[in-house]
Amino acid sequence: MLQLLVTLLVTTIVLVSTTSVDASIALSANLTNDQEVPPTVPTLSTGGPRPASFGTANFFINDAMTSMTFTATIFNIDVTGTQTADTNDNLVAAHIHAGPAVMPGVNGPVVWGFFGSPFNDNSPNDFTFTPFATGVGGTFSGKWDLAEGNNTTLTAQLPNILGGHAYINFHTTQFGGGEIRGAIVPEPSTIALLGAGLVGLLGSGWRRLRTRAEATATTA
Fold this sequence. Notes:
Helices cover 26% and strands 29% of the residues. By secondary structure, it is an alpha+beta fold. It has one domain. The chain has a 6-stranded antiparallel sheet with strand order 6-7-3-2-1-10. It has a 4-stranded antiparallel sheet with strand order 5-4-8-9. A hairpin with a 5-residue loop joins strand 2 (54-61) and strand 3 (67-75). Helix 1 (2-17) packs across helix 3 (188-219). The chain is globular, with a radius of gyration of 21 Å.
């Protein structure tokens, strides 16, 4: 049901942005081991268990849809290579993946990288990251601008991002394909806001049709 609603909203978002409704879009992701394909079970290089890794991320697409800023915080992944003595948990790369076929259980290509390779936050470089002062993990932030992308652009990927066909992925030494992943989905407030815009558009359209019908009846 949520996917159907998101798809409907995506088809009307350009129209909504031209009305008085603020079309800024907030999205989020909860990153876990079990969203990876296949699910991951972190271990030490010696084979023993290590703490499950996880994280959260928030995204904001501006009104003009010319940039998407993000902040992500991850836990139990060594973001500097010196936070733990083991190497399995070392962060090697972090990306946004997207594609028309992407959904839970389906992997997709890298469309924008912000840590390691490929690195696409470069026009300009807005990337920052802060390792935890104590503990294992850190916070990342950056901005995907229109001119950036891994053989693609933000404009080309917006339908996938807004349609629920994108995820954020953190890759480690142990799991080169990704250790924690989170589906990027609209925040409830965004769905409500766009829904209000859609209702407004439908109401406006109905009023125009009724006015037209009344005018036709008067001149008939």
